[in-house]
Amino acid sequence: MLRxxxxxxxxxRGLAMVIRWLALLMVLAQFAIVVGRYVFGVNSxxxxxxxxxxxxxxxxxxAGYTLLVDKHVRVDVFYAxxxxxxxxxxxxxxxxxxxxxxxxALLYWSWPSVRNxxxxxxxxIAVGGLEAVFLLKSLIPAFCVLVxxxxxxxxxxxxxxxxxx
Length: 165
Hints:
Blueprint: H1 2-19, H2 21-38, H3 45-68, H4 76-79, H5 84-119, H6 133-160
Helix pairs in contact: 1-3, 1-6, 2-3, 3-6, 5-6
């Protein structure tokens, strides 16, 4: 089972190694937009939307990796002072009762919107923008799937650990 967990980890690790470059590309694009607007008086809605798309892609597709490396938001007020066994129980509860059901619900409720967006190849957010809102909306189910896969990998590891005495 640990091989399955490693394979699931590999999906998010590999994706993170690719999409991390979006941060640099996003900064360069934003810099070019600012220079174009304030130095040359040129403005492009599509260029501005490209930064929005990159930002959304970076955060939505990196969420699984963030969970993998344990950098997600956690309320550590009590957790940090607990025994490893109690932390393990809280982690299992969090994955099974909070994270997986919420991701499943988000996936279920967002799917019709994503499907409809693809059916009509939904166009730009603003006039002159990118003709790819359907791609932007596709990040929602991708986010859900990647986080759920990582949650399964973490659960495999949590259940395979021996409970401390």
